[in-house]
Design a protein that fits this description.
- The protein is an all-alpha fold.
- The protein has a domain at 1-100.
- Helices cover 80% and strands 0% of the residues.
- It has 14 helices and no strands.
- The chain is elongated, with a radius of gyration of 27 Å.
- Keywords: Signal.
Length: 305
């Protein structure tokens, strides 16, 4: 009996295709359903009363794969456009199709954390309003993670937990003692994890660039220090806290450079304009009001250079 005449074989391939779909593996699922479609063409309906049922399952699966592909394409477009809320909506829609996808689970957590982290810097009219907004977004993260623990198997939770801990580290950053302690724990429990090692290498590179830039600054080599701080801004472009700090260091270095190499230009500028901008930007940085801080740094740089 050949595979094309054995309906058990067709059923097995349909199950493989369904598993790939539930795991969110669109390429594998698409290929599996394509293969099933070829097999169905070779079945004789007179010998296989289940043929109509197989075709219905194949059709449903094929449409589901197309829908999942479309949602993932929309996610990519929304991500490029930085529309996090829309990206979260299509991610949740994709999760309804690929209910076993760990990548989509992590993607949802990442988006929730991005919304929480981004909303921390939004002005809502009062400090209490800002605090409530932060708690609201973070509560969604906590609720979602608790639900994952309740529903998922322990093996998947361990793997997902490691990736979520990496996200937590990157959100707090290397200058945060708690984040450093979490990273050390991750290195002990998952020493070969690519995600963990990537964070370790990133933080080491950040520390190296900061040290070399500061050394150049103390030696009076301001041009080199400015270039190094500019390079530091490319290391973690989405981390507002780190980049605001680097912008402050670069602005300070640039101000020293202008004071020593172009005194005539600074002398002709309005009295105390650039120093005031720099001091105010630093105050915003300390208060963690990064939107205003970055705006003052940008204005300072435009006037100082």
């Amino acid at each position: 009996m050949t595979w094309c005449s054995n309906w058990w074989w067709v059923q097995a391939h349909l199950r493989v295709a369904k598993c790939c779909l539930l795991l969110g593996k669109t390429i594998e699922a698409k290929e599996a359903y394509r293969h099933v479609g070829v097999m169905l063409l070779d079945l004789d309906p007179r010998c296989h009363p289940q043929l109509d049922m197989f075709k219905e399952k194949w059709h449903e699966g094929h449409l589901a794969v197309q829908s999942l592909e479309s949602l993932l394409q929309k996610f990519n477009r929304y991500t490029v456009a930085n529309d996090i809320k829309a990206a979260l909506r299509v991610t949740e829609a994709a999760m309804a199709i690929a209910i076993g996808s760990q990548e989509l689970r992590l993607q949802k957590v990442t988006l929730l954390l991005t919304l929480w982290y981004g909303n921390r810097w939004l002005q809502s009219g009062s400090p209490s309003g800002m605090y409530n907004m932060c708690c609201s977004e973070f509560d969604k993260v906590e609720e979602y993670c608790t639900d994952l623990v309740r529903k998922s198997a322990s093996g998947g939770i361990i793997s997902l937990g490691i990736k979520m801990a990496v996200l937590y580290c990157r959100a707090l950053h290397c200058h945060n003692k708690q984040a450093f302690e979490v990273l050390q724990q991750l290195l002990r429990v998952a020493p070969t994890s690519v995600d963990v090692l990537d964070v370790k290498r990133l933080w080491e590179l950040m520390e190296d660039v900061d040290l070399v830039a500061y050394d150049a600054f103390t030696r009076g080599n301001y041009n080199k220090a400015v270039l190094l701080y500019t390079k530091a801004l490319t290391l973690d472009e989405n981390h507002s806290t780190y980049n605001a700090s680097v912008l402050g260091s670069r602005a300070t270095t640039s101000w020293h450079s202008n004071s020593t190499t172009r005194p005539s230009k600074t002398a002709t500028q309005p009295h105390n304009t650039t120093p005031v901008l720099l001091r105010r930007a630093r105050c915003y940085d300390i208060l963690k009001i990064y939107k205003e801080s970055v705006a003052d740094f940008d204005e300072y740089m435009a006037k100082a250079l």
